[in-house]
């Protein structure tokens, strides 16, 4: 596909051959739903957090838009939530630990952003565990999650203490993401993140929990993000979460196609 322009009132003398307005309206003539999967450029977080591609299509399309992953990943975290409900039942008050884990590359924050919000929305007591303040997620998602948590009588806790965070957990969700202060300067972040390989989800950490379940959105680097012993244990529900992508996606499409 050729480059698109997203700015309003743009004078299109650059590389873009078409404005998103036309692309959205033409595609709306061809299909009943449009799925958007558009990763950030990883150059400037203040620009990327605007989610321009998704929002442009949402504004100009004449059919429903499904976010397949941009700077958030709601479909994935609906799948996670469904898996939790299948295994735990009522999620209200259960301790949810969203833990940063090491990865040799700085990844998108999309899964973490949506996991934080979904857990709070469904009434869980959420702990965000990350190495330092540099790895705390965007304040916008902390605010959304905090508002939902308070409405459910729960809270959002930010922790840099592994032992404290894992203690009494009912569910541990592992994900790596890039530190926002280093956004677009990944070579500067690498020596920082390389100090925190011990954030791997392993048997010793899971032993501190209240017999917690554990998962990851997949794909996952074994023995980097999570140990074989944890991932291959009965406590891991990652395959159930992966299967649920099919079920929640069908439910979303059915609801949107029906005008719900």
Can you put this structure into words, describing what you see?
The protein is an alpha/beta fold. It has eleven helices and nine strands. The chain has helices at 20-30, 45-48, 52-60, 74-88, 110-121, 139-151, 162-166, 186-193, 203-206, 228-231, 238-257, and strands at residues 4-5, 18-19, 34-37, 65-69, 95-100, 125-129, 156-159, 171-175, 213-215. The protein has a five-stranded parallel β-sheet with strand order 7-6-5-8-9. Strands 1-2 form a two-stranded parallel ribbon. Helix 6 links the parallel strand 6 and strand 7 (156-159). The radius of gyration is 19 Å and the shape is globular. The model has no long low-confidence stretch (mean pLDDT 96).
Query: pLDDT average, as an integer?
Result: 96
Q: Give the overall shape.
A: globular
Number of helices: 11
Please write the string of helix (H) and strand (E) elements.
EEHEHHEHEHEHEHEHHEHH
Q: Cα distance, first to last residue? A: 31 Å
Per DSSP, what share of the residues sits in E-state strands of 2 or more residues? 5-15%
Low-confidence parts, pLDDT < 50 over ≥5 residues?
none
The radius of gyration over CA amounts to 19 Å
Portion of residues within helices: 40-55%
Tally the beta strands: 9
**Spatial order of the strands in the main sheet?**
7-6-5-8-9
Query: Class by helix and strand content?
Result: alpha/beta
Largest sheet: 5 strands, parallel
């Amino acid at each position: 596909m050729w480059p698109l322009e997203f700015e309003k009132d743009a004078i299109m003398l650059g590389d873009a051959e078409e404005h998103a307005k036309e692309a959205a309206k033409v595609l709306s003539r061809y299909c009943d739903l449009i799925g958007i999967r558009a990763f950030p450029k990883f150059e400037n977080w203040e620009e990327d957090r605007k989610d321009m591609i998704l929002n442009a299509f949402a504004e100009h399309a004449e059919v429903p838009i499904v976010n397949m992953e941009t700077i958030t990943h709601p479909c994935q975290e609906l799948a996670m939530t469904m898996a939790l409900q299948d295994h735990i039942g009522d999620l209200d008050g259960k301790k949810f630990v969203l833990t940063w884990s090491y990865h040799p590359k700085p990844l998108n924050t999309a899964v973490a952003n949506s996991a934080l919000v979904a857990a709070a929305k469904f009434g869980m007591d959420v702990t965000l565990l990350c190495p330092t303040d540099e790895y705390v997620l965007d304040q916008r998602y902390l605010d959304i999650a905090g508002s939902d948590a308070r409405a459910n009588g729960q809270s959002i806790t930010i922790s840099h203490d592994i032992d404290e965070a894992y203690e009494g957990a009912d569910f541990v969700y592992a994900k790596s993401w890039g530190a926002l202060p280093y956004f677009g300067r990944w070579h500067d972040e690498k020596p920082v993140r390389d100090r925190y390989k011990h954030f791997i989800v392993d048997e010793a950490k899971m032993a501190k929990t209240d017999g917690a379940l554990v998962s990851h959105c997949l794909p996952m680097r074994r023995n980097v993000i999570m140990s074989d012993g944890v991932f291959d244990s009965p406590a891991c529900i990652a395959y159930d979460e992966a299967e649920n992508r099919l079920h929640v996606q069908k439910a979303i499409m059915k609801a949107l196609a029906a005008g719900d």
